[in-house]
Design a protein that fits this description.
By secondary structure, the protein is an alpha/beta fold. It contains six helices and eight strands. β3, α3 and β4 form a beta-alpha-beta unit.
Length: 201
């Protein structure tokens, strides 16, 4: 099913890493197998592509439903490992789809901000924490750290932090207050990655 995905990664991965000066830090923090949620800062449209190109694992990723607008795009997004999510809603169908992938031992990439934010780290939605609880799997916090706005021949690092479970963050299934608090802790972890790892101009 993912022959095209693997082919594009093998061909485009080295080119993109060279062209954009991409360096990967902490890739060993992404488990080589088994269910995992990668919770990443979302700056640019291409972020899912960068994560897909530098990871050895196939990444399943949530993408806004509007991208699945015709049969070709449905086919293409499926080949890219993406599945639709309705932004601005509590999309239970997307959550159930993600849990199904996690229960099969797959990796799911999620952007907890829910949309792109170039500079600020926006408030996190609780999806990553909820998925970790439902699938009993770790979360790997991540961020793309750069100084030149994703232009060629610049400095860019894709950083993966230490895995942590929702339970370790203090989340309790069915307890919305604990999930909210755990979500804030996860956001602070990603904020620390951005602060410590963004290259200096």
């Amino acid at each position: 099913m993912f022959t095209l995905y693997r082919f594009v990664r093998a061909v485009a991965g080295p080119v993109v890493r060279l062209l954009y000066g991409v360096r990967v830090v902490g890739i060993e923090n992404v488990p080589a197998e088994g269910a995992v949620v990668i919770a990443a800062k979302h700056k640019k449209f291409g972020d899912p592509i960068y994560h897909a190109l530098v990871n050895k694992r196939i990444l399943r990723s949530m993408a806004k439903k509007e991208l699945f607008k015709n049969r070709f795009m449905i086919w293409l997004m499926g080949k890219a490992g993406a599945f639709p999510v309705r932004r601005g809603y509590s999309d239970r169908a997307a959550i159930y789809t993600a849990v199904r992938f996690l229960n099969k031992g797959q990796a799911v990439l999620i952007f907890p901000e829910g949309t792109r934010a170039r500079k600020e780290l926006n408030e996190f939605k609780s999806g990553a924490v909820v998925l970790s609880l439902l699938a009993n799997c770790p979360i790997v916090p991540a961020a793309t750290c750069e100084t030149n706005g994703y232009r060629p021949f610049g400095k860019m690092k894709i950083v993966y932090g230490k895995p942590v479970t929702a339970a370790e963050l203090g989340a309790v299934r069915g307890n919305s207050a604990s999930i909210h608090e755990a979500n804030e802790k996860l956001r602070r972890i990603v904020a620390d990655i951005l602060e410590q790892e963004t290259p200096k101009a």
